[in-house]
Amino acid sequence: MNVIMTALPVENAAVLEHLVDVRPHRHRGTVIDVGTVAGHPRHRVALVSTGAGTAAAAALTERVREEFAPSAMVFVGVAGGLRDWLEIGDVVVATKIYSYQGGRSENDAFLTRPSAWSAAHSLDQESRRLVRGNAWHSFLTDRGEGETPVAYFEPIAVGDVVLNSRTSELAHRLRTSYNDAVAVEMEGSGFAHAAHLGDQVRAIVVRGISDRADGDKAAADRQGGQRLAARNAAAFAIALITALEPDGDVPEDGGQEIAPPSGPMSNSNIARDNARVDQQIGFNFGSARRIR
After folding, report:
1. What angle do CA 235, 238, 243 make, to 5 degrees?
2. Regarding beta strands 115-118 and 91-99, do their DSSP bridges make them parallel or antiparallel, or are they unpaired?
3. How far apart are CA 103 and CA 117, in angstroms?
4. pLDDT tens, position by position, 161-202
5. 162: closest CA among 98, 117, 209, 215?
6. Residues 6+ apart with CB under 8 A from 145
7. Is the peptide bond before 260 cis (omega within 30 degrees of 0)?
8. pLDDT value for 102
9. Dihedral of CA 172/173/174/180: which sign?
């Protein structure tokens, strides 16, 4: 089992496009969508929506890590670009996550005291293989002719602020104190910190560029920047999930070994383009044990 986390509804919907046999799993009030990657019946995903902000991301990262003991966790979503060479829809795989709000405020200066977390080495390595020949593009949904988003491996800055300016005090601080960060977002540091504390669970952040953090965010959103960025980030994340080892407790036919049973349920799922995925056989989560 692997976990994908998102913050916004558009991000959650983009991941759901790739899942079949999706069922709700409820844990301590949190409703988690558990499904299988379309066409990959041995790759199961628990999908969690955190809402915006680092605190919620941290709390729910720990909650789902404890519940599912995942092999890997990926935070997927949109980000504002801090570099002119980034196009709307490009993907940034975070090699490093900065928490930029830590510091000491003096009379005449803000002294930066950052925290930082690196991507899990194995996930970073698998991600880099996906850019060979743009292999991850095969997971793009509704791809237009000639559409070729690029995936970059760069640091990302994170804080509980929506940045929509290249000239504000915060923009200046990011430029001077976090100069290698190419994008900015609002959940990755909470996610990365909780993953780091959780017995070193493998974790990585994948973001699509939805705007340029330059004052035109509203216009970019109206033009579909968030939807495009979320779609591309989700495609990369799903490609990464399928590149990892399949779930060891799922039989070759994709059936789920869940016990004790409370009554069988069975259905067949049709993926995009009417391609039959497989027959999924399992039991109601309400009376079944935790999925591992």
Report:
1. 125
2. antiparallel
3. 17
4. 999 899 999 999 999 999 999 999 999 999 999 999 987 799
5. 215
6. none
7. yes
8. 87
9. positive
Q: Going by DSSP bridges, is the β-strand pair 40-49/30-37 parallel, antiparallel, or unpaired?
A: antiparallel
43 Cβ contact list (under 8 Å, min separation 6) = 2, 36, 37, 241, 242, 244, 246, 247
The H helix count followed by the E strand count for the chain is 7, 14
Q: Which pair of tokens denotes residue 224?
A: 């579909």
Given this model, what pLDDT does residue 263 score? 39
Residue with tokens 């593009």: 137
Distances (CA, A) of 77 to 147, 168, 292: 19, 24, 25
Which stretches of the chain score pLDDT less than 70?
Answer: 145-146, 249-292
Tell me the fold of 2-287: Rossmann fold (3.40.50)
Q: Residue 96 has which token pair?
A: 């490093």
Q: Distance between CA 30 and CA 67 in Å, rounded?
A: 11
Domain segments of the chain as ranges:
2-287
User: pTM higher than 0.85 for the full model?
Assistant: no
Number of neighbouring beta carbons within 10 Å of residue 101: 18
Burial class (CB in 10 A: 0-12, 13-18, 19+), 107: exposed
Q: Work out the burial of residue 113: count CB atoms within 10 Å of its CB; fewer than 13 is exposed, 13-18 middle, 19 or more buried.
A: exposed
pLDDT at site 143: 77
Q: Give the Cα separation of 135 and 126 in Å (integer).
A: 12
d(Cα 8, Cα 208) in Å, to the nearest integer?
Answer: 13
Q: Which two tokens stand for residue 117?
A: 């977390």
* Closest C-alpha to 35, from 46, 49, 48: 46
